[in-house]
Amino acid sequence: MSRVSTRVLLVTGLLLALLLAGVVSFYASASPDGLNRVAEDKGFSSTQTKHASDDSPFAGYGTSGVSDGRLSKGVAGVVGCVVVLALAGGLTFLVRRRGARDESQTVSHGGS
Amino acid sequence: MHVPDGFLDAPTSIATGAVAVVAIGVALRGARHELDDKTAPLAGLVATFVFATQMLNFPVGAGTSGHLLGGALAAVLVGPFTGLLCMSVVFLVQCLLFADGGITALGTNIDLMGLVTVAVGFLVFRVLQAVLPKRLSFVAPAAAFSALVSVPTAALCFVGLYAVGGQADIPLGALATAMVGWHVLIGIGEAAITGLAVASIVAVRPDLVHGARPVLARRTLEVRQPKGATA
User: How many CB atoms lie within 10 A of CB B63?
Assistant: First the structure.
């Protein structure tokens, strides 16, 4: 079985995520999403209140102080990826079962 | 489908927050059995990928867009309990750092876009897996279909919450029709992205895919038999 190593898979996946959030996101549709569209059509979008995080430097997926739209969104996307990776990676690392999986001793010849 | 502050009243938001806390508590316990040294790093990647892909709104026509929710994807790749943890981290970061999805609505968003899509996605996936042939090539299509079902289901659950605690008086039938209509279209995009992502990982490392393990276990037994016979 030709297998990609876990490390290669993870690095490739991470680079893809950074590319999507950091570059491709600029080209995403700016139209309202399904819920916002329905809220506008049905007339309850006005009940939306101010967001407590509106002062965040990355509010609305932009970077405050960066005027270039492409860079502003790209930086915000990359920062988001790093924060999510750190939190989710750290959490799942803490929660995991320690040590090798039971069967990994018997299938060690499978390698990865 | 990020619900902002103000759409739902305080009691409803408190209730959805309580549900989210309980669900995350259960997920923390359950995830222990899904995560080991090999799969824990993949879970971090899945959360990051879901965050990145949620930034990519795709047009679904008539000036409306949608993005991947990712619950079904996460559940199939890393298991439902770990999947919910991944999704919750994404919504927390989006809410606090990007002002996307209200702070009082964080529980609502974890429930709708996390709990519902993970649970529905995984349930439909398991049912399909039981019915379909036990082959690796069926894992991605089954994941894609469960992703398709998960999105309008989450939309319908929003209507349910709105019926209980909506801040405006909106005819519920019309609200349900509109929500489900748009989110079936968004669900098609969800299915495409989920199918593609699951197929890619199944192609290179099926052993890392939680939803592929039952299929893989059968196959591994067949492969090992001749090796054991020589001893």
Answer: 12
Chain A nearest-CA residue for B84: A88
The two tokens of residue A38 are 């329905």
pLDDT at B220: 59
Using a CB-CB distance cutoff of 8 angstroms, which residues of chain B are in contact with residue A3? 204-205
pLDDT, one tens digit per residue, over A7-60 is 999 999 999 999 999 999 999 999 999 999 999 999 999 999 988 888 899 999
Q: ipTM of this predicted complex? A: 0.89
Put simply, whether B173 touches A (Cβ < 8 Å) is no
d(CA B191, CA B193): 6
Mean pLDDT score, B41-51: 96
- In DSSP notation, B155-178 reads HHHHHHHHHHHBSS---HHHHHHH
Burial degree of A36 (CB within 10 A; 0-12, 13-18, 19+): middle
How far is residue B220 CA from its own chain's centroid?
A: 28
Helices first, then strands: H and E counts in chain A:
3, 0
Q: What is the pLDDT of residue A3?
A: 76
Describe the crossing of helices B80-98 and B71-78 by its angle, rounded to 10 degrees: 140
